[in-house]
Design brief:
Layout: E1 2-7, H1 16-24, E2 33-37, H2 40-48, E3 53-58, H3 72-83
Antiparallel strand pairs: 1-2, 1-3
Length: 84
Amino acid sequence: MGLKVKLVKSYAGASERQRRTVQGLGLKKLGDERILTDTAAVRGMVFHVRHLVISEVVLEEAKPRERWWKGKRVREAAEQGQKG
């Protein structure tokens, strides 16, 4: 089971802690949605910004995020290693 979180109100004018919490949930723009693993830590983060987001429990599991910080060559080398 996962927790679907959607940013429904802008965090402009919010405290720095609330901004970082919204960013920590992986939400960037108004209307962004994420399905996160339903843990106590995530629920606590949602609780702190509950006036900015809507959350609901869904049956879908959270998908692992791609490691975006790896360079293109490193990703290509990893793919070659998996294929061959």
